[in-house]
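FAQ: What does a ligand-bound record look like?

Like this one, built around fe (ii) ion:
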Amino acid sequence: MAGIDYGERIPNNVSLGENRRLQRALEEWQPKFLDWWMDMGPTGYQERDVYLRTAVSVDAQGWAQFDYVKMPDYRWGLFLAESEPGRTIGFGDHMGAPAWQDVPGEYRGVLRRLIVTQGDTEPASVEQQRHLGRTCPSLYDLRNLFQINVEEGRHLWAMVYLLDAYFGRDGREESEALLQRRSGDRDKPRILGAFNEKTPDWLSYLMFTYFTDRDGKYQLASLAESGFDPLSRTCRFMLTEEAHHLFVGETGIGRVVQRTCELMREGKTDDVRRLGGLDLATLQKYINFHYSVSLDLFGSEVSTNAANFYTMGLKGRFEESKKRDDHRLKDATYAVSELAGDRITSRETPALPSLNERLRDDYIADCRRGVDRWNQIIKKHEIDRELRLPHRGFHRAIGLFGEVKVSPDGRVLSEAEWDAKKHEWLPTETDQAYLESLMRPVTERGRFANWIAPPARGVNGRPIDFEYVRLA
Ligand SMILES: [Fe+2]
Ligand SMILES: [Fe+2]
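The answer part, i.e. the structure of the complex:
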């Protein structure tokens, strides 16, 4: 069961061959997906051999195989984590009942919306990142970008499988629509805000993979708890792939910090722009931006939708099954931020409608761990500076803080104070222009752009100067 059948047109471990109707629907969708990929996927490099990993089984050990593949030949398919016999619903009103193997009729619309919202982010990030190949800082980084891109494409397949297999005609229409929306398009934008932002340069991309892909991890982890078993199994396997994206973000920013510190010491200056590097102040601004737009993805602090998803058994908490409480939360409370005039306080609030905020808290704690590790790098260079996550209310568009202006250290500001200071906190056009001036492609084996250090090790035991992408 763990093995994946690559003999079929659509690789899968869901016995697709036994479901003719579904097979036909997906085989009709497949060429449209490829058209989208050629149109909106990475520009250039589609004819190049890229050293990519492909899933060969869904086991925790040795699930991947590495080889040179041209991206359009990547074997996108349907891979679900193995089913757990006797699995029951772990939370909400249906707790203890057998997990649903089919869509519960009364939750059909809600479930479809959850799947579509998640599914929409997958092609969106490929679209956002499509021009980055042109300015890659190394072949190693270029390969990692393409690995992420093909896997986000596979995540789209994962969600389309659920839509086509379980939602009939509506599902098929949604599958088409997922290929029609476009990131940043005025008329047919992607569903969520952060997925319509531009990813114009490699620092933004690394920040995106650290902060925005991490939102994905938390959404997938809470959907992996779902009482709808096919969704749970799909998300569990997606999380294995997602871990690599987060690794690229965390180590990528770590390498930028490393290089910045080296330049600071060599040049005995904070202003490493003179040396063609990215100064810590600029890095901080990009952290502020990407962290704050990613916080918005969790939604409002108090949300009836979040409460309903939970009560219905569709979307759990992060690590729901590890928690030791009643998993119904009807009488529980949770501390949620509150505005008292121009002061930010917190108040115990009913736990169910606070589930977005709880997931955001889990996310924030996780974000902090990476920032701590980046600060360790700075410390090792004996530099007395720190990177920080801004206050959760900083630069927010959704929920409680969408109505006020908050400084990175958590003070509520007047509009005038905000306007006077925001350019110190968020990337300006000048910062962006400088950043883009650094984006010159480096494609010689083993060489890296001046603003980023080489990684500690290569991919899959290969050396750092391995030919990760064959340019000829
Ligand atoms: Fe994804
Ligand atoms: Fe991802």
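Follow-up question: can I read anything off the structure? Yes, for example: The longest helix spans residues 229-267.
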